[in-house]
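Board notes (copied after class):
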Amino acid sequence: MPSNPAGKVADAVHDSTGNVFADLNLPESDELLYKAQIASAVASTIRKRGLTQVEAGKLIGADQAKVSSLLRGRLTDFSVDRLIRFLTLLGRDVELKISREVKSRPGRVRVTGAA
């Protein structure tokens, strides 16, 4: 097996687009990114409030297993809408802002704010 000489970087290293899901060529990578960002805010809020998974589940209307999945980043069972609802049930305000039209490119969705 060939060795990697010290100081050599593998040829497979590429600059990131800023979206790991796009870098992995996953379909709907933009949605996956903002879903992960919203879920991160939910998880951060749960941790900051010192809630157990059972307590968090009671607040957001989910069982402990769903809360555990969310906290572990397993997001396939969660829609963006549901994650936003979790944030509001945890006392977080969520603001959606629609900008003016930009004809030179497709629109995009960004998630900003404190986690």
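Comment from the instructor: The radius of gyration is 18 Å. The chain has a mean pLDDT of 86.
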